[in-house]
Design a protein that fits this description.
The chain is an all-alpha fold and 92 residues long. 70% of the residues lie in helices and 0% in strands.
Length: 92
């Protein structure tokens, strides 16, 4: 068992063939993947804004069940008005 414990670190050192730092580059493939991911984030953001706008418009038209509304919504005070009120009440 002792000889195995001494041989394992030596075998790991021999088997570990890592390239030199100057040999490792991302290249054009890495750049392309980065651009595709950035494009995906932009498209998801545009889609999110579109769906949130549609949901807001449908809520204003009354397309949703009124029993699902929160008490704050029943008062007729929207989130932006609530934020304005909380800013006025808070000491600056």
């Amino acid at each position: 068992m002792t000889s195995l414990a001494t041989l394992l670190p030596l075998l790991a050192a021999v088997a570990d063939e890592t390239p030199e730092p100057e040999d490792v580059t991302a290249g054009w493939v890495g750049f392309g993947v980065f651009l595709l991911l950035a494009l995906a984030v932009v498209l998801l953001g545009i889609s999110l804004a579109k769906h949130l706008r549609k949901a807001r418009d449908n809520a204003e038209l009354g397309a949703f069940d009124p029993s699902d509304r929160t008490p704050r919504d029943r008062e007729g005070v929207g989130p932006s008005e609530m934020d304005d009120r909380s800013r006025k009440d808070s000491p600056s």
